[in-house]
Amino acid sequence: MAGRYGVVLHGGAGARKSRNYDQEIVHMKGLVEAARDQLKDGIPALDVVSEVVRALEASGLYVAGKGSSPNINGVYELDAAIMDGQNRAAGSVAALVGYESPIDVARGVMGKTPHVLLAGDGAAQFADAIGYAKVTDPEAYYTKAGADGDHEPGSLAHGTVGCVVLDRHGHLAAGTSTGGVFGKLPGRVGDTPIIGAGCYADDRVAVSCTGQGEFFMRGVLAYDVSARMHYGQATVEEAANAAIHTTLTNFAGDGGMIAIDAEGNISAPYNSQGMKRAWATSDGEIFSAAFEA
């Protein structure tokens, strides 16, 4: 008998109270409603994650995919990861240049190679061999979402998108995609493509992180949620809040995460000004916001 199911997404923890996010809030709500309907029809968690993250990338509204900004040399280097909680299969790409959907390429790495992570030229060569959609004119394609402020190199101003899903068969999956921090050095890789740091899923919980990736890597924060639940018997709410409000805050890091457990319980803590986030569940709950009410 099918149990509870649900979908949670984020559009980044870089939300600033000086900006209006009405367009993003409406967009996110539409995505989770559509994803919930797919889950109701029995679509697997991994497929829903892929589709949601791909839509977030393609929208140009968030600092990922089409919305990404270039590094200090003017090159768009993008990262993404995806993980199947049922068997812990995972795929990711780092510093990928020239392709529209990093999450698609990451899923290709998972399904079409024996590897987990491909980076730089190797990731691009793989994407070209498979035939993923290319960005032929970067300056015309990328919208540079969220790049209206002044971001000094090294300031770690950031943006990311992600999705976590529990399907009606009880399987979990997670995906994360990012354009990285603003004004980043060439070759910089954050937490997003590092399994366990910015993206993680097992049979217990699925997690997608957003924020200053350097700190998420140091705390291995996505996996930390599962570890707290497993070894400390914490709830998903307790585990996610400890990861953000204790570990990340003690690092003086900025960001947030979304998580859903095998029972359909949701947590979306952050310690930044805001985090664009939305969810929909089989219980009929629908939520979409950038800040606290």
How does this model look, in words?
With 293 residues, this protein is α+β, with helices and mostly antiparallel strands. The protein has a domain of 184 residues: Glutamine Phosphoribosylpyrophosphate, subunit 1, domain 1 (4-Layer Sandwich). It is 32% helix and 25% strand. It has eight helices and twelve strands. The strands form two sheets. An eight-stranded mixed β-sheet has the order 4-3-2-6-5-1-11-12. A four-stranded antiparallel β-sheet has the order 7-8-9-10. A hairpin with a 4-residue loop joins β2 and β3. α1 runs antiparallel to α2, α2 runs antiparallel to α3 and α7 packs across α8. The longest helix has 19 residues. The chain is globular, with a radius of gyration of 17 Å. About 2% of the residues have low confidence.
Q: Could you state the CATH homologous superfamily of the domain at 6-71 and 158-182 and 190-282?
A: (Glycosyl)asparaginase
Question: What fold name goes in the CATH topology slot of the domain at 6-71 and 158-182 and 190-282?
Answer: Glutamine Phosphoribosylpyrophosphate, subunit 1, domain 1
Category by helix and strand content: alpha+beta
Strand order of the largest sheet: 4-3-2-6-5-1-11-12
Distance between the termini: 36 Å
Q: What is the CATH architecture descriptor of the domain at 6-71 and 158-182 and 190-282?
A: 4-Layer Sandwich
Secondary-structure element order, as H and E? EHHEEHEHHEEEEHHHEEEE
Percentage of residues in strands: 15-25%
- According to CATH, what is the class of the domain at 6-71 and 158-182 and 190-282? Alpha Beta
Shape type: globular
Q: State the share of residues found in helices, binned by percent.
A: 25-40%
- Average pLDDT over all residues: 95
- Report Rg: 17 Å
How many strands in all? 12
**Uncertain spans, ≥5 residues at pLDDT below 50?**
149-154
Number of helices: 8
Q: What does the main sheet amount to?
A: 8 strands, mixed
